[in-house]
């Protein structure tokens, strides 16, 4: 039998494609788990560097590295910020996160601050947004809002490394800072994503969930007509909560039925790349519940 290493070494596929191929072998989205043990696997990126997973158990972190291989990022940027350990969820309602983040000088963070903006709320490591920014250098600006300062510091380090002038990360509690930051942006707000937000399972902690009425109102108000909101979660209850809150705005927002759905949830991630949490969750066999909304065009 041809090993995965041999099978792929003669092809000129992108690491993303390869990661998806490996992923589809490793698990299925609806709970089937297949053996994750591979004798050999090698992926080539366009610069001819390679990632080889030889004779070891495939972990979801390997899949994340593969999916984002073309960014070629180094992890340890200083003693302080290296492989950032993710603590349990932070409490966004604590007084330490109550101060609004300062509004940056937009013309200092973006080459062209008049471009349409995509905001990712709870951007985590930032790699998802970095990948998109690299693909759309001249057409869109990207802003990540993240409540963990070390992740923001490392993400902005990566922005500089990749020499991208259309992306920036801000250490901010989105519940407190979204309105002030986004209403000051000179260009149009075209896209907002909230992907796998912290679930805060306990009933008494649900008010810590990032999607709350004031944030929804602010997103809807700032979004241009035709602009989109993409939300997803691997926790059904959290996805339903976000869906219910966005569905309440049905006078201005409509769920995009033109994309393939199953039981009202989008089957595919429409962004062309999965987030890190999404990769980990799918690897464990979880289903991802997604909704994509569009703000209605103004009628005269
Ligand atoms: C489960 S992670 C998901 C990260 C990324 N979106 C993904 O799908 O891989 C949720 C992220 O949201 C951040 N977060 C939680 N509450 C937040 C808030 N109020 N404002 C900004 N970021 C927040 C967390 O620190 C964490 O990085």
List keywords for this structure.
2 domains; 300 residues; 11 strands; Rossmann fold; transferase; seven-stranded mixed sheet; alpha/beta; SAM-dependent_MTases_sf
Describe this structure in words.
The protein is of the alpha/beta class and 300 residues long. The protein is 31% helix and 21% strand. The protein contains 10 helices and 11 strands. It has a 7-stranded mixed sheet with strand order 5-4-3-6-7-11-8, with helices on both faces. The chain has a two-stranded antiparallel ribbon with strand order 1-2. A two-stranded antiparallel ribbon has the order 9-10. Helix 8 links the parallel strand 6 (189-195) and strand 7 (223-233). Helix 2 (15-26) runs antiparallel to helix 3 (60-67), helix 3 packs across helix 10 and helix 7 (174-183) packs parallel to helix 8. The termini are far apart.
Based on the structure given, which CATH architecture of the largest domain is correct?
3-Layer(aba) Sandwich
What is the H level of CATH, i.e. the homologous superfamily of the largest domain?
Vaccinia Virus protein VP39
Radius of gyration: 20 Å
Bound molecules: S-adenosylmethionine
Question: Treating each run of at least 4 consecutive H or I residues as one helix, how many helices?
Answer: 10
Per CATH, what is the topology of the largest domain? Rossmann fold
Order of helices and strands: HHEEHHEHEHEHEHEHEEEHE
Largest sheet: 7 strands, mixed
Q: How many strands appear in the DSSP assignment?
A: 11
Taken as a percent bin, the fraction of beta residues is 15-25%
Number of domains: 2
Low-confidence stretches: 1-52
Mean pLDDT: 83
Q: Which strand order do you get reading across the main beta sheet?
A: 5-4-3-6-7-11-8
| CATH class category of the largest domain | Alpha Beta
The secondary-structure class comes to alpha/beta
Overall outline: globular
GO molecular function, one term: tRNA (guanine(46)-N7)-methyltransferase activity
Protein name: tRNA (guanine(46)-N(7))-methyltransferase
EC number: 2.1.1.33
InterPro entries: SAM-dependent_MTases_sf, tRNA_(Gua-N-7)_MeTrfase_Trmb
């Amino acid at each position: 039998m041809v090993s995965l290493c041999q099978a792929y070494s003669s092809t000129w596929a992108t690491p993303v494609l390869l990661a998806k191929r490996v992923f589809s072998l490793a698990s299925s989205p609806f709970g089937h788990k297949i053996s994750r043990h591979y004798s050999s696997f090698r992926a080539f990126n366009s610069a001819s560097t390679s990632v080889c997973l030889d004779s070891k158990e495939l972990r979801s972190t390997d899949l994340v590295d593969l999916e984002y291989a073309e960014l070629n990022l180094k992890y340890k940027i200083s003693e302080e910020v290296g492989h950032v350990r993710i603590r349990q969820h932070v409490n966004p309602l604590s007084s330490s996160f109550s101060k609004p983040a300062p509004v940056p000088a937009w013309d200092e963070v973006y080459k062209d601050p008049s471009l349409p903006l995509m905001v990712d709320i709870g951007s985590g490591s930032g790699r998802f947004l970095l990948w998109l920014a690299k693909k759309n250098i001249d057409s869109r600006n990207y802003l990540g809002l993240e409540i963990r300062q070390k992740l923001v510091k490392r993400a902005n380090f990566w922005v500089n490394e990749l020499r991208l002038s259309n992306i920036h990360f801000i250490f901010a509690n989105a519940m407190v800072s979204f309105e002030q930051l986004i209403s000051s942006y000179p260009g149009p707000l075209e896209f907002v994503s909230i992907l796998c937000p912290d679930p805060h399972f306990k009933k008494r902690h649900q008010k810590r969930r990032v999607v709350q009425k004031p944030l929804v109102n602010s997103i809807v108000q700032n979004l241009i007509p035709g602009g989109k909101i993409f939300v997803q979660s691997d926790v059904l209850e959290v996805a339903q909560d976000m869906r219910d809150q966005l569905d309440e705005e049905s006078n201005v927002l409509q769920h995009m039925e033109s994309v393939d759905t199953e039981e009202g949830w989008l089957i595919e991630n429409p962004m062309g790349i999965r987030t890190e949490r999404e990769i980990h969750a799918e690897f464990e066999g979880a289903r991802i519940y997604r909704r994509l909304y569009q703000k209605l065009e103004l009628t005269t």
